[in-house]
Structure to design on (344 residues):
């Protein structure tokens, strides 16, 4: 039997990928036990037919350790979905760790929007990750870019990293009737998403008489960003913030938008880049390795400079941009599940 350990996954892209992974695992009629973070929305588990046991735990290493000490011998494969190896050393059982939080590889001098205290927290988590990483384990990542930086940060088994991208865009059909010069940015409000520079660039355009429409998905509990948005809207800028949004509504926003603008500073994967491209949006994005690892964008800019974002916006609204964004990678969800099954 397989153990899927998804403690610490409860929102955003991680939750979306977990749902997609589990729905595909379930289709294979594979028996498994599922560890879930108690904060996650519990409605989706009702569709899982082959989960022999679903256990909700506190998101802590203490609760994980208690579970593993009592139960790990029941399994022949363990798949840790949330970046961190098992909290005890596992021998004679295949262990895979899906790594998808590039912030855990942060250096003190990285320009990622976080302060010194936050960077230190990420670094301590990286140390913890390495303490519980052993040569028997195998890591799974989405791109060669993440593999290269993870390899530099691991203290051991640097060569046991598999690249297996998986994402849910296979059923999308393009029926593009977008609103011209409409931009969408699908991201929450954490620091590395770089919203402040993006908003400043749109304000610069507004002062020149170019009032472009910008669609955002920042949860409303990010008070500072929402206050800034409200001030800009009061001036007359066309900014719509939809907050946390359901998938059906998000699809409508993609279809209505001519461009995805993506000024993020750090991403482990960048799922909105793939989603937007699959819906036919032209993607203008940060000129950073995580972007170029998965798509050929329509245009790029320096995300650390507001003027560069502004110039990219000017370029793309002043010309008839016919360069389509294309996707470089393929979905390998089936390969991932086969690897887990073959260790049974």
């Amino acid at each position: 039997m397989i153990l899927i350990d998804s403690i610490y996954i409860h929102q955003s892209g991680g939750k979306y990928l977990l749902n997609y992974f589990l729905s595909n695992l379930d289709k294979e009629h594979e028996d498994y036990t599922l560890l879930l973070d108690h904060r996650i929305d519990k409605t989706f588990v009702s569709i899982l037919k082959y989960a022999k046991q679903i256990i909700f735990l506190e998101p802590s290493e203490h609760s994980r350790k208690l579970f593993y000490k009592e139960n790990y011998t029941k399994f022949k494969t363990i798949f840790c979905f949330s970046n961190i190896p098992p909290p005890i050393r596992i021998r004679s059982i295949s262990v895979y760790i899906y790594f998808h939080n590039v912030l855990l590889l942060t250096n003190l001098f990285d320009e990622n929007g976080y302060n010194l205290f936050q960077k230190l927290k990420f670094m301590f988590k990286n140390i913890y990750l390495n303490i519980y990483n052993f040569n028997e384990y195998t890591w799974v990542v989405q791109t060669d870019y993440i593999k290269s930086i993870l390899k530099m940060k691991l203290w051991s088994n640097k060569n046991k990293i598999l690249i297996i991208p998986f994402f849910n865009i296979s059923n999308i059909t393009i029926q593009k009737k977008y609103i011209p010069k409409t931009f969408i940015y699908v991201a929450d409000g954490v620091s590395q998403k770089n919203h402040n520079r993006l908003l400043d660039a749109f304000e610069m355009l507004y002062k020149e008489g170019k009032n472009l429409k910008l669609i955002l998905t920042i949860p409303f509990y990010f008070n500072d960003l929402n206050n800034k948005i409200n001030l800009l809207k009061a001036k007359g800028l066309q900014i719509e913030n939809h907050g946390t949004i359901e998938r059906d509504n998000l699809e409508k926003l993609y279809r209505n938008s001519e461009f995805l603008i993506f000024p993020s500073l750090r991403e482990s994967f960048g799922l909105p880049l793939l989603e937007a491209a699959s819906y036919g949006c032209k993607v203008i994005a940060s000129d950073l390795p995580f972007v170029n690892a998965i798509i050929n964008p329509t245009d790029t800019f320096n995300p650390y400079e507001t003027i560069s974002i502004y110039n990219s916006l000017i370029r793309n609204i002043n010309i008839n941009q016919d360069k389509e964004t294309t996707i470089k990678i393929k979905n390998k969800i089936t390969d991932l599940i086969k690897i887990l099954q073959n260790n049974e």
Remarks:
- The CA atoms of residues 166 and 331 lie 5 Å apart.
- The chain has two domains: 2-165+331-341, 179-327.
- The longest helix spans residues 12-27.
- The chain has eleven helices and 15 strands.
